[in-house]
Specification:
The complex is a heterodimer of chains A (630) and B (384). Chain A is an alpha+beta fold and 630 residues long. Chain A is 37% helix and 17% strand. In chain A, the strands form 6 sheets. In chain A, strands 2, 3, 4, 5 and 10 form a 5-stranded mixed beta sheet that branches. In chain A, helix 10 packs antiparallel against helix 24 and helix 16 crosses helix 19. The longest helix of chain A is centred in the first third of the chain and has 38 residues. Chain A is elongated. In chain B, strands 3-4-5 form a 3-stranded antiparallel beta sheet, covered by helices on one side. In chain B, strands 1-2 form a two-stranded antiparallel sheet. Classes of the chains: A alpha+beta (630), B mainly alpha (384). The interface between A and B is large, with 39 and 48 residues.
């Protein structure tokens, strides 16, 4: 018990110390509380009043899109606008009412702001009006004290200096739709635009950059007191295209008079597209400022489909241009040789059907060179019959048809290369030999885009290499469509015999330079000569009655039913460096008349400017003086 | 009450007698503080039982049963279980280091699928139990020898080391402080404290070297809040603005602008006192502080009335730990000490802390219920 008492007493003494300590510390707490909540209360109340720390997102400037020599074709310009922050605005509709007295506001705009306020988080500013004039902008500034939650901003807006000329390549940007919102607050920002088509869409992530933030202390009215921290984010990267600015402008103007046409120029060795135009086009700048519903309706319902890039999205029967693939299929499969001769009496009879040549009086006895040069239909009926549709299809696919080429653009369509199996599967019918014959001249089921045609030609003139088309010189990271080509490496071989390719090259040379179908469009300048192949594809079957009455002239038929004119060409014939395809919808005349002159002018222009030599071509100044054959 | 059957210093009571002995006013006081906690958690969620208040109430229900259970078990059982409990807590602490879940850059939780366990909270009770058990067996004559403090020093240093590795500076300091308090209460000579203090000060540069960057930042920011206006300094500034603007009467329940506009960080856990003081003013703050003081006074009274050294040290140790929780948390949110991440006991949202504290109060009540139980120097063998 003595021990117990000792322990108890000692514990008591020491516990008293501990208790004393606790009392002292508790007193300190109470004193501090008194200091903060009583003595300093007023000061802290003011601070709480002023206390609004906002995190603001700084949208990164969107990267520019440049041509192959660094000339901008999509950039950013300043945009004065007025925005409203719902959480600071109090009664939103009342504030809008007051704002409407300062700058005019349409009812639709007010409704949109109210709708956006529902959709977005309350601290995300909503654009009320964009592209204000300087005077309107200043008026809002002056009236700011009466407009809680209203702010003026100088933002950036996308600018396409070339307008419609590059519209199909560069595409356009617009605010993200509800579907595209993925929780990234950046997409909810009023001036934030994302790529919706073309290179803007394919390379959107690279162009977008990463978001910056700014922590600002603002008072209850929303006025910034000071900035606490700032993270600039990362501006979007520039994307250099393979397109040559001057050639693109030239090509756009060259086909501008056509009602509906598409043309493309490509480096056959690398697959780089140098120019690509589709008529009619549209004004991409309209999309930045917000397209009205009526305008959008007009664009989408236009029968000439201005929003479609017909180079990649237009599918046409290739007509006689397809004979390139048919000839190669025959040679490579061994079905015929270059020396195989067929007689053309102007038609070929199969069963009780007569398959006509484009030349009613016939070509007489021809070998393959002659067949290509004269584009003799009978020669290719016979060639196709011997080769068979499946082997033709196999070669056509090797040359890049029948599937999307994989170009880094949106809206590419696959075309169609028929086979026996395809017909069985889709139509449930057996293939007929007559269909093989019309496939041999690129009619019937066959469909190809102008891009596929220029790709086919490129793969023939580049020595049988599997070039893949693209519109950038160096693919930036984060592209939507993965580049299927390795940087700096030549494309792999397609395994086509050089001798076969030579037959095609000499044939296509003769088409233009040796009295062939496109002799009228030859290039006279020495060293610049082009080779090519014309094509005229029927949109509608010619009836027996029409054939007999020789009613085949364009003037006899409505525009929609007239033939399409096609031409594929390359230059110079000695060592091909440029390849192009031109398609004129419903031209009424054949490819050699309507399309070949455009191909010729384009190839002259390309060889004169010669962007592949690495020098930027002259600015398009003296163009007016150049004589443009009609 | 002393007439309740003394047989060789041993008290045997029926369950009914024990229940009668339970200090129900203490239970009521605990429930009252927890009730304030529910209200504040309701407010922290902007007037919603989800996600905090409802869950905290369930935990309180479980904890209440745990508390009464702990109170009714004979304290000699707890004395016998003291080392095993300590050992389990130590193993759990070690496990956090290996398989713990990350939260805000620190590993403090064990994910047991059903519940998230925070072993450092368990250790705060387990350490008191183990030290009380150890010092119970040390007679006054032994305190002259220096060797006598080696084992208890080890008992303190091991969990402190593990907690520092997590890293959790606040809990490490709390463990050191409550351990030190037990040393002092048990009768360790004062010069030894002086020696430890000197050694500790000498170790400061070394310890600094081992501190994590964010811990250094917190300490530096404490001395100079302008260093980091967006980090911990910002938290403290916002907390002070909330407290100060609360004034005498406060802004009213659910009306705290600082809390509800999200200027206040961690308002359901570490900064919950700030919200209380913002919404109920200094009146509310002092009211809660008084309730805490009452709980502590009860604990001290229980400790002084216990007739066993184990009981005294246990009750007093728990009271000191509890006091440290309260002090460190409130001093932190008022900017008196650095932000160290210690919850406000019974009020802050957090399951393990809630259950640990309720269990600890169960032990205090148990000491009161068994206040007349005498336990021999060598411990439980003589009794049961």
């Amino acid at each position: 018990m003595q021990l117990d008492q000792f322990q108890s007493k000692q514990f008591g003494r020491r516990a008293a110390f501990v208790v004393g300590g606790k009392v002292a510390l508790l007193s300190a707490l109470v004193a501090r509380m008194y200091y903060l909540q009583v003595l300093q209360s007023e000061r802290y109340q003011t601070l709480a009043e002023d206390n609004r720390i906002n995190l603001r997102l700084l949208p990164p400037p969107r990267g520019r899109i440049l041509d192959r020599f660094g000339r901008p074709v999509a950039l950013n310009r300043q945009n004065y606008r007025v925005v409203i922050v719902p959480e600071d605005a109090g009664e939103l509709s009342a504030t809008l009412e007051r704002l409407a007295k300062v700058v005019p506001l349409a009812d639709a705009e007010r409704r949109r702001v109210l709708r956006d306020a529902e959709r977005n988080r309350p601290f995300v500013p909503i654009t009320v009006r964009e592209n204000l004039s300087w005077e309107e902008f200043s008026r809002v500034e002056v009236n700011m004290p009466d407009l809680a939650g209203v702010r003026t901003e100088v933002g950036r807006i996308r600018d396409y200096p070339c307008g419609p000329s590059f519209a199909h390549i560069v595409g356009y940007v617009a605010a993200a739709s509800d579907k595209e919102l993925d929780g990234d607050p950046l997409l909810e920002l009023p001036d934030f635009r994302i790529g919706k088509a073309g290179a803007e869409k394919v390379y959107d992530l690279a162009l977008r950059g990463s978001v910056g933030t700014s922590q600002v202390e603002v008072n209850a009215r929303g006025r910034v007191i000071r900035e606490l921290a700032r993270d600039e984010g990362e501006p979007g990267k520039d994307v250099p295209l393979s397109i040559d600015f001057g050639l693109q402008q030239y090509l756009t103007q060259r086909i501008a008079n056509e009602r509906s046409a598409a043309a493309v120029l490509m480096d056959p060795h690398s697959g780089e597209v140098l120019a690509m135009a589709s008529t009619p086009s549209f004004e991409p700048n309209e999309f930045n400022e917000g397209l009205s519903a009526a305008r959008w309706q007009a664009l989408t319902s236009d029968p000439l489909s201005p929003l479609t890039n017909k180079v990649i999205g237009g599918q046409y029967p290739p007509g006689s241009t397809f004979k390139v693939a048919v000839a190669l299929a025959a040679l490579e499969s061994g079905a015929t040789t270059p020396n195989t001769k067929f007689n053309c009496p102007g038609y070929l009879e199969l069963g009780d059907t007569r398959f006509h040549c484009w030349k009613p009086q016939g070509h007489g006895l021809l070998d393959m060179h002659g067949g290509i040069k004269n584009s003799c239909d009978v020669y290719f009926y016979e060639t196709a019959r011997r080769t068979g549709v499946d082997r033709i299809a196999e070669m056509a696919c090797r040359l890049g048809m029948g599937a999307v080429t994989g170009i880094d653009l949106t809206g590419e369509r696959p075309g169609l290369i028929p086979t026996r199996a395809w017909k069985k599967a889709t139509l449930g019918q057996a293939w007929t030999q007559g269909e093989t014959l019309v496939t041999g001249i690129g009619q019937g089921f066959v469909l190809a885009t102008p891009l596929q045609l220029v790709l086919m030609l490129s793969r023939v003139v580049n020595g049988g290499k599997a070039a893949v088309p693209r519109i950038v010189r160096k693919p930036p990271e984060g592209g939507l469509i993965q580049a299927s080509f390795a940087e700096g490496e030549p494309p792999p071989s397609l395994g086509i015999a050089d001798a076969s390719l030579q037959v095609l090259l000499s044939g296509m040379n003769a088409v233009v330079n040796d009295g062939g179908t496109a002799h009228g469009a030859r290039i006279a300048q020495p060293g610049m000569e082009m080779g090519g192949k014309s094509g005229t594809s029927q949109v509608r079957r010619i009836t027996v009655a029409e054939r007999e009455h020789k009613k085949r002239g364009p003037e006899d038929r409505p525009w929609r039913e007239r033939d399409n004119a096609l031409f594929i060409a390359y230059a110079p014939v000695s060592a091909p460096r440029y390849a192009c395809a031109v398609v004129i919808e419903h031209a009424g005349s054949g490819g050699s008349i309507a399309a070949a002159p455009i191909a010729r002018d384009l190839l002259i222009e390309a060889q004169t400017r010669d962007p592949l030599s690495g020098r930027p071509s002259e600015p398009p100044a003296g163009r007016g003086k150049r004589e443009v054959p009609s | 009450m002393a007439s309740l059957g003394h047989i060789r210093g041993e008290v045997r009571m029926s369950l009914a007698e024990k229940l009668w002995q339970v200090n129900w006013s203490l239970v009521l006081l605990v429930a009252l503080v927890c009730g304030i906690g529910f209200a504040m958690l309701y407010s922290a969620a902007n007037g919603s039982w989800d996600p905090w208040a409802s869950r905290q109430m369930v935990r309180f229900g479980v904890g209440l049963v745990l508390m009464l259970g702990a109170a009714l078990v004979d304290i000699r059982h707890w004395m016998r279980l003291a080392y095993p409990i300590y050992f389990v807590a130590l193993v759990l602490l070690g496990a956090v280091d290996v398989v713990g879940a990350d939260a805000m850059g620190a590993q403090r939780w064990l994910d047991l699928k059903v519940i998230q366990l925070q072993p450092s909270e368990i250790m705060k009770v387990a350490l008191v139990l183990a030290l009380a058990r150890y010092f119970h067996g040390v007679g006054p004559e032994q305190f002259g020898r220096i060797t006598v403090v080696f084992i208890p020093l080890l008992l303190v240093v091991a969990p402190v080391f593990l907690v520092l590795k997590q890293p959790d500076l606040g809990t490490a300091i709390m463990l050191l402080a409550s351990g030190g308090a037990l040393f002092f209460l048990a009768g360790v000579r004062l010069w030894k404290f002086a020696a430890v203090l000197v050694a500790g000060l000498a170790a400061v540069p070394l310890a600094w070297h081992f501190l994590h960057g964010y811990q250094k930042a917190r300490i530096l920011t404490f001395f100079d809040p302008e260093r980091d206006p967006l980090g911990t300094g910002y938290h403290i500034l916002q907390s002070k603005i909330a407290l100060g603007s609360g004034g005498i009467l406060g802004k009213g329940f659910l009306e705290g602008t600082q809390s509800h506009l999200n200027f206040l960080p961690e308002k359901a856990t570490d900064f919950i006192f700030t919200m209380l003081a913002e919404e109920f003013g200094i009146i509310g703050g002092l009211a809660l502080l008084s309730l805490y003081a009452l709980l502590i006074v009860y604990g001290i009274a229980v400790a002084l009335r216990a007739r066993s050294q184990f009981g005294r040290l246990l009750a007093m140790g728990i009271t000191v730990t509890f006091f440290l929780y309260v002090f460190v948390n409130i001093a932190m949110v008022m900017g008196l000490i650095p932000v160290v991440g210690v919850p406000l006991p019974l009020v802050s949202y957090g399951g393990t802390a809630m259950l640990s504290i309720l269990f600890a109060f169960g032990l205090v009540i148990g000491v009161y219920v068994h206040r007349d139980v005498r336990i021999g120097r060598r411990g439980v063998e003589s009794g049961l």
